[in-house]
Amino acid sequence: MNRPSEHNNTLQDRRAFLRRLACSALGIVGAGALGLAFWDRQGPLPEAARALAAPIPDFSLPEQAGKVALVRGISDRIRGVELAFQALGGLEGFIRPGDHVLLKVNAAFALPPALCATTHPDLVTRVSQLCLQAGADRVWVTDNPINDPASCFALTGIDAAARAAGARVLLPTEDRFAPYTVPGADLIRHWPTLTAPLQRVNKVIGLAPVKDHHRSGASMTLKNWYGLLGGRRNIFHQQIHTIITELAMMIKPTLVILDGTMSMMHNGPTGGSLDDLKPTYTLIAGTDGVAVDAMGAELLERTLDHLPHLRMAEEKGVGTVDYESLKPEVVTI
Amino acid sequence: MMQPLTHPTSRNQRQGPTRRETLLSFGILCVLVLIALAMFAAQARYDAGAWRALSHETDRADAPDLPSDRVEALEQSSRVAGMTPMSPPEHFGAETLSDKIDGKAELYLPSGFEHLESRRLAMADDPGRWAERFVYDMGGSSGAFAVYSQQRREGAQPMEITPHGYRSANGIFLVQGPFYVEIIGSDTSARLMDKMVAMAEAFVAAHPATATAAAEPDLLPAADRLPDSITLTAANAFGFEGFDQVYAARYQWNGRTAMAYLSRRASAEEAESLADAYIAFLQEFGGQIVAPPPDAPPVRIVEMFDLVQLIFTHNEWLAGVHEAETLADGLLLAERLHRNLSEAAP
């Protein structure tokens, strides 16, 4: 016969065993439940089979349609963009308190800002500051560069410029792309597109330099939207004017700003030498990207015949190449 | 009398974990919490510079099937006193060239492009100043000259280290054998330019090339030729698809301009056939055939948009004058070019 202490020990052993069993079971069930919660039942799908991104919102403001401002005789980008906004009636007409603003810059190449192959950091800083002063809650900066994104944002000075102004760079990480189809388009169909940054904002401003481009003739505000495409987008170089037209159809920005204080006249889009640049002392801002680029073409000494995408975009109803018809506000310093 | 049997484990369970075990467990949990906090902080504070090492740039760090002596020469020539690597070298082939230079790839690909290696070097004592070296392997000296000549900056300062090389305020551009090399500086400081010159010299020293000058540039008339205006177009010269390997130079006199060109074909028959196709191409776009004057060299003349095109062949050479402003100008330049070709290959 067992003694009482022996009996107690046995009971305690059983209880401890049961407690541990219960804990282990709970652990297993918990881990299983966690796994179930994270379980992607479909798994990764081919690009074409993935769900399309939600439609890109229309960021334009009907009351500001057809506004264009041209600042001539300016070499200081900061002063230039301030004057352009004044001529447009003030940035407050475009950016309202609480807005979330996306600046789509050209950060295509990991090159120094002096080469003017990318959006100048001064412009990024000042536009970010002015948006925040106008009451914007957040300002984001993004692009899907040609070269390595992190190097591009660092070496162009855009990342530092954005931080200095209180804005933040959104890198084009894979999860920020989704297949997208532009209604009526032939090329942008189920194409990976940088849509996530566009879905988190209610205002979009394009910031582009004036550049020669070996394929398209020029790279200005419309070509700047090319940086929203992902995947092997270089295949579109064979139909460069069509793809630029479709990009113009895809996104209706709140405002575009074309920096022609210094224009890349030759060897674009990368340039590489300061000799490729020419001071053209002009900054253009407006809500009609076609009209803004038609004005910018003159800085590059190109005609509309050199840039077929401008007329193609006009035919699609995106804007007008007849910028005079918009009666641009001209500021001459 | 037998002692009751008690299992040592049972005793431990009764007593619970020791203080030492509890402290150890608590310590491990603290470390895990700290790691989680550090990860959260790192995620919240994005730094583009810190991301660079993790970027896909490093994925291309391995040279794709380059001979070991080539890799060694590239490495050796990038070791310049006072310069330190900023990032690993990047390599691009024909399929990926546009990942580096976007639309400008279309200039390189028809000219025989095979491979691009690029790397950035920063000044050791001033890391904010840096230069990027682009080494394009164009498969041969004519391809290298083609892309060099198509992008030559006017008024740049010639460099003596190679027959074809110049420097601008912030860059060095040269041809060495099959390589077209660009060294682009982050600014225009004299100290950085000195280092860039050293980089160019190191490259030339590590990649010796036999001077094999093409004959074509010497056949283009020297009189009235604009300095540094000789170009080689590898494909689609003057917008005509079949026109490749065309040397051309610009001329100016009396305030008017014209361009002379020549292209060596495989045979006289091919030259003649290409000339016919080119004339048909011009006619397709509105060109009108004009009869040459009686004393003119054996040329065919097409007038188009108030400009004059003159085309002729000589043995395996296809040559001509592009966009002369007057017929007299075109005939004068064509006569000079024809004479050079006749003397070189009677």
Automatic annotation (TrEMBL), chain A:
Q: Where do transmembrane segments lie in this chain?
A: 21-39
> What does the record give under GO molecular function?
iron-sulfur cluster binding
What protein name is recorded for this chain? DUF362 domain-containing protein
Instruction: Spell out the Pfam families in the cross-references.
Output: DUF362
Give the organism, scientific name: Desulfatitalea alkaliphila
Q: Which InterPro entries match?
A: DUF362, TAT_signal
Upper lineage: Bacteria, Pseudomonadati, Thermodesulfobacteriota, Desulfobacteria, Desulfobacterales
Domain DUF362: from-to ranges: 101-297
Keywords, in A-Z order:
Iron, Iron-sulfur, Membrane, Metal-binding, Transmembrane, Transmembrane helix
TrEMBL record, chain B:
Transmembrane among the record's keywords? yes
- The highest taxon in the source lineage is Bacteria
User: What name does the UniProt record give this protein?
Assistant: Uncharacterized protein
Q: Which spans are transmembrane here?
A: 21-42
Q: Which organism is it from?
A: Desulfatitalea alkaliphila
Q: What is the lineage of its organism?
A: Bacteria, Pseudomonadati, Thermodesulfobacteriota, Desulfobacteria, Desulfobacterales
Tell me, what's a Pfam family for it? DUF6599
Cross-referenced InterPro entries: DUF6599 (IPR046534)
Keywords (A to Z) from UniProt? Membrane, Transmembrane, Transmembrane helix
